[in-house]
Design a protein that fits this description.
globular; 52% helix; alpha+beta; four-stranded mixed beta sheet; 26% strand
């Protein structure tokens, strides 16, 4: 009976783990990272000093870092957050994991988008 119980736990764990991995792969595949980056290039021109977009496979989230002009004010940074959120929703439909957007002025985070 103990062996049956242990086997049942092992198979249940493997089944759940395999399904979670399969779901994660589907989500990653649904994120058009290249399309996202291409539209970021168009939008960033003249507005941002530099930017990065990457997928953190350990945390299952998308990270966007934008270096803004030192003169960028709170209203501008909130607008940048809206634009990035819209792009995220466009290029990652159904993506249920977090995305993190950090706006930098120099080496310091000036604004975080949620």
């Amino acid at each position: 009976m103990k062996k049956l119980f242990v086997l049942l736990i092992i198979f249940t764990t493997l089944f759940v783990f395999t399904n979670v991995l399969a779901d994660d792969l589907k989500i990653v595949e649904s994120f058009d990272l290249e399309g996202f980056k291409a539209e970021m290039v168009e939008w960033a021109e003249g507005r941002w000093l530099n930017w990065q977009v990457f997928y953190d496979s350990e945390e299952y989230n998308v990270i966007v870092r934008v270096w803004v002009s030192p003169s960028a004010n709170k209203i501008a940074m909130e607008r940048y957050c809206e634009v990035i959120k819209d792009l995220y929703e466009k290029y990652a439909p159904g993506y249920s994991y977090e995305y993190n957007v950090f706006l930098y002025k120099g080496k310091k985070i000036a604004h975080t988008c949620r």
